[in-house]
Amino acid sequence: MKDKNIDLKCISLRLANVCLLSLMFILVLQAQPQRPRFRNIVSPGVLPDNKVTFRVYSKEAASISVSGDWSVTREATQMFKNDSSVWSATIGPLEPDRYHYTFTIDGIRATDPSNPITVRDITTHASVVLVPGEVSELYTVQNVPHGSIHKIWYNSPTMKLYRRMVIYTPPGYDDSQDKYPVLYLQHGGSVDEDAWTELGRAAQIADNLIARGKAKPLIIVMPNGNTNEAAALTEIPRAAGSQGFPPGPTTGNNYEASVVKDIMPYVEAHYRVLPGPENSAIAGLSMGGGQAYNVGLRNTDKFAWIGVFSSGLFGGVQGGYGNFDPENQIPGLLSNSSSFNKSLRLLYISCGEQDPRIEYTKKAAILFKENGLNNVFTGFPGQHEWRVWRKALADFLPRLFK
Amino acid sequence: MKDKNIDLKCISLRLANVCLLSLMFILVLQAQPQRPRFRNIVSPGVLPDNKVTFRVYSKEAASISVSGDWSVTREATQMFKNDSSVWSATIGPLEPDRYHYTFTIDGIRATDPSNPITVRDITTHASVVLVPGEVSELYTVQNVPHGSIHKIWYNSPTMKLYRRMVIYTPPGYDDSQDKYPVLYLQHGGSVDEDAWTELGRAAQIADNLIARGKAKPLIIVMPNGNTNEAAALTEIPRAAGSQGFPPGPTTGNNYEASVVKDIMPYVEAHYRVLPGPENSAIAGLSMGGGQAYNVGLRNTDKFAWIGVFSSGLFGGVQGGYGNFDPENQIPGLLSNSSSFNKSLRLLYISCGEQDPRIEYTKKAAILFKENGLNNVFTGFPGQHEWRVWRKALADFLPRLFK
User: Fold this and answer.
1) Which of B136, B176, B185, B202 has its CA 20 to 30 A from that of B87?
2) Searching chain B, which residue's CA lies closest to the CA of residue A328?
3) pTM over 0.80
4) What ipTM, to 2 d.p.?
C-alpha cells in the first residue's frame, strides 16, 4: 500500500508539474505584453575564428555602433542595417578573453538587448562576451569544486560606519575545520566591494587555480575601499547625478586603520584564518594598489605578501604625482631594504602595457631593485582596465603562501 | 620618537592619499575616452508629488518611450525632445513602491543610461526607480542591523547536479550560537536562485521586518527551482538565443526529492537550524508557488508553514489547467482536512488582483475553507509581477514561527 501511495503521489505530482511547466511557459510569454519581441536575434555571436558578430534589430535608428575593451581606445565600429532591419558588425578575430562592450544607439549608450550577461562598472553597464580559450576558462564556472561568496556587514569603529564587504571562502571550507591563509583584495577608485567578484571574476579565478593545484586554497576578503561609503551603490544609492566617485573624500589615512583595526579582527573572529604575516597578503588595483602598497609596507608585521596592480602611486597619471618619493612614504624602504626583504615574501608589481602608468611603474620596480628591495614586475597587454586586472590576479594568486 | 614617527607616517600617508585621490579622479574620467558624456542628465527624477520624470539625451533618435510596472499593461509613454536634445516624459503620481522600467529607443529596449541601478529579470534588464513611502522603505537598506547573503554550491545527488543556492542569515547570526527557523523560498519559472534577493529584495525585507520586531529572525534558503539548471545564467550561461526557460524540462517530480533529500540536509548540516516542522516554512511564487504547495502539503511532517504566491496551480492561465483537482494531487486535503489543520500552522495563499489567476485562486481558497481546510488569502494590487511578490513576502514573513 505504501509503495502504491507513493507511486500515485509521484504520478500526480508529475502530471501537476507538466501542467505547471506548460502554463508557466505560456504565462512568461504573456506576462510582459509590451516587451519588444526578440526576433531570434543572436548577439553576440562568436565565430570559430574568434571573430564576433553583434546584432540588434531596429527599423528606425539612424546610427548604431559597438565599442568594447578589445580596443584600448574603445574605438567604435559602425553597425549596418540589412533588409530585415537587423543591424550588425563583425569585429576581430579577438584574443581569447572576457570582453565588455556597449552599443551606441543614436548617441545613447546601451547594453546589447539580446545578451543577458551584463556587468556594472561604477555607474554604467556593459554587456559581456567571452571569446573561448585558456584564459577565458579561468574566468568561467568550470566543472570543479566552487568556493562560497559571503556578502556581510561589519562595524568599522575607525570609519564610524556600518560597512559591507564580500568574502570568498575556498572549496571545502564549509566541510572542514582547516584554517586558511587570507588575501585582502582592494578594488579601484569609484567601484566598490562587488567589483572583484563581478568585474574581476575573483571567485572563478580562485576556484579554477585551486582546482588545477596552481593556487593554495585561500580566503579572499574584498572590502569597500571608498572611505566615505558604507556599501556599493546598489545597496545604498549615491546622490542623483553622482557618476564617478561617491561624494566627499574617498580615501584617507583611516583606510589603513580600518584594515588593521576593523577588518582583520572581524575576519579573524569569524573565519578560520591561519595566523601571522606569512599567511596574510594584501593587494589591490589602481587606488586599491596604492592602498595595498601603503597598508602592506607600513605593516610588514601583518603582511608578507603585497600585490600592487596598476597603481598611480609611481606616476604617469595626468595632473598627478610626478614626485614619487618612496623613502618619504615608507621610511627605510630603500635605505634599509634588507629589513623589508627579511619581512616580505613577495612584493609584486604589475601594470597594463598600454596604461600611462607603465613607464613610471617599471622605473619604480627598477629603483627598488637598484636599492636592493626584492620585487617582481609583470606587464599585461591592455590599459587601465579589467582585462589587465583579472590577469594580474590570476598571475598573483599562484605566487602566494608557498 | 615613536609618536613623531607615527605622526610623520600619518602625514605622508595623508599626502599620498590626497594625491592618489586627485589622480584617480582624473584617471577615471580619462580612462574611458569613448563613453558618451553624461551632460548632467538626472534620470529618473522623483518629484515631491511622486510624479517621476525620465530623461535621456539624443540628437538623432526618431522615437523614445518609457514603460514600466507602474502600468499593469506596461503601456508605453512617449518621451519628447526639447531644444537641447533632451528627451523627457513625466508620469504619475505613483504609489510608493520600487518600480522597474525600460526605455524603447527607436524600437530597441534599453535601460536608462543615467541610472546605475538595474535588475536582471530572466534574460532582460530593467532600470529601477524607488518612489519613497512606507512600503519602499521595506525594500531599501535602512539604518538597522543587516543579515548576510551566502552564495554557495551544494551537491544534489537527486538531480545529479552540483548546484548553487543563495542563503540569507539574519542579523546577529554570526555573533551568536542561537538556532533559527528556516524559510525555503522558491522563485518563479525561468528566473533563478538570485531572483528573490535581487528582484525580490528578500534580504532588505527580512532585515527591516526583523528590526521592527514584526518578523522573527530566520534563515531564508533560496534554491534554484529549475530542475535542469545548476545555477543562474550569470554563472552558467544558457545556450545562445535561449530567452525564456532554460532548455529542457524545468520542473519535475525530483524537485520535491531534491528539497527534502539534498537541500534540507545540507542546510541542517551547515547552518544552525531549529528542528521540526514548526520551525520550517516553504513558500514560492508562480512556478515556485506550485512547488511550495506540492512539496509542503506532501511533507507536513517537515513543514508547518506554507506560502503559495501567484501560483497557476488553481487555474486562470491561458491554455492550462481548467481542472484543478486538489484531492487527487494531495490525497485527503479536502476529505481529511482536519489532519492537515492539525499539522499546518499556516496555509497562506496570495495573488495579484490584476493577475488572471486571481479568480481561480480565490475559488480554491474558498473551496478549501468550505472543506474545513484553514487558510489565509490575501490579494495585492498588480498582475504577475515583482511588485506583488515583494508585498506577499512582506505580508508572509510576520506570520511565521509565532
Assistant:
1) B136
2) B12
3) yes
4) 0.89
